[in-house]
Specification:
Blueprint: H1 8-16, H2 23-35, E1 50-54, E2 57-59, E3 65-69, E4 76-84, E5 90-98, E6 105-106, E7 114-115, H3 124-127, E8 130-131, E9 150-158, E10 170-179, E11 186-192, E12 195-201, E13 208-214, H4 224-231, E14 235-239, H5 258-270, E15 274-284, H6 286-295, E16 304-308, H7 330-333, E17 336-337, E18 343-344, E19 369-374, H8 382-395, E20 402-407, E21 424-428, E22 434-437, H9 442-464
Parallel strand pairs: 2-10, 13-14, 13-15, 15-16, 16-19, 19-20
Antiparallel strand pairs: 1-3, 3-6, 4-5, 4-9, 5-7, 5-8, 9-10, 11-12, 12-14, 17-18, 21-22
Length: 466
């Protein structure tokens, strides 16, 4: 156990050397620093500088207020944030401020004049996080262990510096915890009727309105959005359909068909703590296509659909007579590489390039549909897709069902707010390293995530809590 006398400089050194990636130690440190009200350096001339974060423990989509006090007036300071991913990689952000006449700095009010972001950005230290210099290439921050928080060490440094400048004087520090799963949320692994997923339930007996949560063709089982939705009062079922050890066949192929997704819907519908007539789907990337496809199936009655940067068809046949997916040569044909060898999948999903028989019959959509579009999406032809959906529903006399949110400067990976965007990331290792472009510029992408999440929750509230 750490003694109360341990210095924040020591804490910082431990973080940098990765000696304390264990959440148990993180929690002890967080309790220590909270009990001290932030760490202070004593001075005979004025109260010790103090850095505060309120609240210190919050959900990932909640804003916190960060303030520095008892500083010399009109002096340059740097506020720095550092944390480790679940894989142990160090992420950091920093911003330069000038203290006010009263010797304070308030990130909710004051403007950054340099660093990871510029201007008044109360949560810039969170969405501005990037891998520390010297990190592995192509990292993307994604939470895997939802029973632990991200633990962020925030420090106040003298002067306008960067975290890599070890000569800077640390004036004060505090830790914050950022959670996807609220207290009382229950996580249950589902392995039923061949379906592989994870169900998150809010606290209480229910029944709850529910969402089926589908992600992209990167595969695996992505749970963090479902955990956050459950923290906001919705049962949420994260579904795997590719690249998971409990699914049949090679993990590089989609070996499930329409019946698989329909079974997942019925598992959710039949759950005793779910409102059977208040179910929606949220899909990102290829998950949009699967969501739209499921929404038009007989026996599936949805209350709403939320589609984030995804196509209306595929260049991969979802299910053949032998129960395996078939790869299409058009995947390779329509890939575009930049001068650094980074690949964009955008042209693959152009409506003109997808396999005609895979196109969803959009005119059969019968529930409200929100489409969220990042105008700098480099992975999916989202703008063309949104236009096609809007035109098809208009021609079918269903314009009232369609809501479009379009965000200039936002990329493909529009996720819950105050999380950092990766403009590109590592896609595959073999036969060689391949980095894929997602798009998005930091500040407008962050603004899109904040605005769209609020509107997603409002949209769900309107159609699932009627």
């Amino acid at each position: 156990m750490f003694r109360v006398s341990v210095s924040v400089t020591t804490v910082r050194q431990l973080i940098e050397t990765k000696i304390i990636p264990c959440i148990g130690v993180h929690r002890n440190l967080a309790c220590l620093l909270r009990s001290m009200g932030g760490v202070r350096w004593k001075s005979s001339l004025r109260p010790a500088p103090l850095l505060t974060a309120t609240p210190v423990r919050a959900l990932i989509d909640e804003q916190i207020s960060i303030k520095g006090r008892f500083l010399p007036p009109q002096c340059p300071v740097t506020v720095c944030a550092q944390m480790h991913s679940d894989h142990g990689d160090l992420w950091e952000a920093f911003a330069h401020y000038n203290t006010n006449a009263d010797g304070t700095v308030n990130l909710t009010r004051d403007r950054s004049v340099g660093g990871s972001y510029l201007g008044c950005e109360p949560m810039g230290l969170f969405w501005g996080l990037q891998p520390a210099p010297g990190s592995r290439e192509g990292l993307r921050l994604r939470k895997e262990n939802l029973e632990t928080p991200y633990v962020m060490l925030m420090s106040l440094l003298e002067g306008h510096v960067s975290p890599s400048e070890r000569q800077s004087t640390e004036l004060a520090a505090i830790t914050t915890e950022r959670w996807y799963m609220a207290p009382g949320v229950r996580r249950t692994e589902i392995r039923q009727d061949g379906v592989v997923g994870t169900l998150f339930l809010p606290p209480g007996p229910g029944p709850f309105p529910a969402m089926l949560d589908l992600w992209g063709i990167g595969g695996g089982l992505v749970e963090y959005r479902s955990a956050l939705l459950a923290s906001r009062g919705y049962a949420s079922f994260s579904l795997a359909y590719l690249g998971h050890k409990d699914l049949p066949g090679p993990q590089t192929c989609i070996n499930v068909g329409d019946s698989y997704f329909k079974s997942a819907y019925h598992i959710l519908q039949d759950h005793r703590q779910v409102c059977a007539d208040r179910i929606g789907i949220i899909g990102t990337s290829f998950g949009v296509y699967l969501s739209l496809r499921l929404a038009t199936q007989a026996g599936v009655k949805l209350s709403c659909l939320i589609c984030i940067n995804g196509p209306v068809g595929s260049t991969v046949k979802l299910y053949d007579a032998d129960g395996r997916s078939e790869s299409s040569e058009s995947d390779q044909k329509h890939m575009v590489y930049d001068d650094q060898g980074h690949v964009s999948f955008k042209h693959i999903s152009l409506p003109a390039n997808i396999i005609p028989e895979t196109k969803v019959k959009l005119e059969h959509i019968a529930c409200p549909l929100m489409y969220i579009l990042g105008e700098d999406d480099q992975s999916t032809a989202s703008m063309e897709t949104a236009n096609l959906i809007e035109e098809t529903l208009r021609d079918a006399g269903k314009s009232q069902l369609f809501t479009l949110l379009s965000y200039p400067g936002a990329g493909h990976l529009i996720e819950p707010p105050y999380t950092p965007n990766s403009r590109l990331s590592l896609w595959s290792f073999k036969p060689k390293k391949l980095f894929t472009l997602w798009g998005g510029h930091p500040a407008p992408h962050a603004a899109a995530q904040e605005d769209s999440w609020k509107k997603i929750l409002d949209f769900m509230g309107s159609h699932l809590r009627r």
